[in-house]
């Protein structure tokens, strides 16, 4: 049987708050998960999500697009890049990240099924 399902992003199935500085709104349809992350100025994975995840670095593979703001990602091997509005991204597990500047960074991310969860 064919699947036809939808959910408006303004009414997420769940909101996962970060320790400080933002949250991730999550919609899950069948085996597809989409998150809209709002990362406020001052957000840093190692301070805001590490206490939730309990890992030394982020172990989630992220795939998505930056809608606004800027975020720098540093891989465990030291490789670093900054994403900004319109940048499509793939980020493998093993990284830290932080918001750059005074504007919230908003990312649409399909790699969040277990992100910011214990």
From TrEMBL:
The record's listing under InterPro entries reads: Cupin_2 (IPR013096), RmlC-like_jellyroll (IPR014710), RmlC_Cupin_sf (IPR011051)
Matching entries from Pfam families are given as: Cupin_2
Cupin type-2 domain location is: 62-109
What protein name is recorded for this chain?
Cupin domain-containing protein
Organism, as annotated:
Nocardioides pocheonensis
